Amino acid sequence: MQEAFIKFEQGRKTVMQYEAEFTALARYASHLISTAEEKCCRFLQGLNRELRHPLVPL
């Protein structure tokens, strides 16, 4: 599951579908995203490019 999380991208999923699956997979890779900032950055990296660029992590 950790490898699935590392390779996980939005692809053809809606943002809501992507977020739900991201959250489920994140449980198996908590050591890779130990802070909220790391989790946010990883989430943004997996989004489709056209959605990713207008967004910035807080």
From TrEMBL:
Pfam families: Retrotrans_gag (PF03732)
Protein origin, superkingdom: Eukaryota
Positions of the Retrotransposon gag domain: 1-49
Protein name as annotated: Retrotransposon gag domain-containing protein
